[in-house]
Amino acid sequence: MMNLPYGELAIGQRARSRGRTITETDVVNFCGLTGNWLEIHANAEFAKKSMFGQRVVQGGLVFVISNALFGFDSAVVEAFYGVDKLRFLKPTFIGDTLHAESEIIAMRDKGDKHGVVTAQLWAVNQRSERVLSCEFTLLIRRERLIVD
C-alpha cells in the first residue's frame, strides 16, 4: 500500500501482505542482534514451564517482520515517522506463519513535498488470530523520487 505517492493514497485503503514463517534462525539472530536472550525466547526447557509451554518470538521481531512484509517503495517512502499504540495481542511461536493487514486511518500534509500517512497495522497468524496491533506512520513523498 505504501508504494504510491501521497496524492494517490486515501483514508480507508486496505492492504494484505504476503506470508512469512518465523524460524528458529530468525529468533536466534534477533537474540544476538539485540542482546535479548530472555529465557522465554532462548531456552526451550525454561519455556516449557512457562504459561505458553514453548518459546515465544520476541515482540520486537514480530513488529519488524510484520511491517516489512509490505515491501515499502523507497521512491515514495521518505522516512519511518513513528509507531503508536503497539500491542502484542497473542504470542507468536517459532513455526508460526504471519501476514500483515493494514488500513490507512489518517493523512495530513507536511510541507510542499510530503504527507504523513498513518495506517492501522495488524500481524495475523495462520490461525487467523491477530497477534499484533499498532498505528504505523510514514512520511510519504508527493512525487516519486527519480534517481539517475
Total strands: the figure is: 6
Strand residue content: 35-45%
- For CATH, the homologous superfamily is named as Hotdog Thioesterase
| SS field, number of helical segments | 4
Count of the separate structural domains = 1
Low-confidence stretches: none
CATH topology: Thiol Ester Dehydrase, Chain A
CATH class: Alpha Beta
C-alpha Rg (nearest Å)? 17 Å
Q: Give the CATH architecture.
A: Roll
Protein name: MaoC domain protein dehydratase
Organism: Alicycliphilus denitrificans (strain DSM 14773 / CIP 107495 / K601)
InterPro entries: HotDog_dom_sf (IPR029069), MaoC-like_dom (IPR002539), MCH/BMMD (IPR052342)
Pfam families: MaoC_dehydratas (PF01575)
Characterization of the model:
Helix content is 20%, strand content 36%. It is α+β, with helices and mostly antiparallel strands and 148 residues long. Strands 1, 2, 3, 4, 5 and 6 form a six-stranded antiparallel sheet that branches. The longest helix has 11 residues, at 24-34. It is elongated.
List the topology elements.
Elements: E1 14-16, E2 20-21, H1 24-34, H2 39-42, H3 44-48, H4 59-68, E3 77-88, E4 97-110, E5 114-124, E6 130-141
Antiparallel strand pairs: 1-4, 2-4, 3-6, 4-5, 5-6
How would you summarize what this structure contains?
This protein is an alpha+beta fold and 148 residues long.
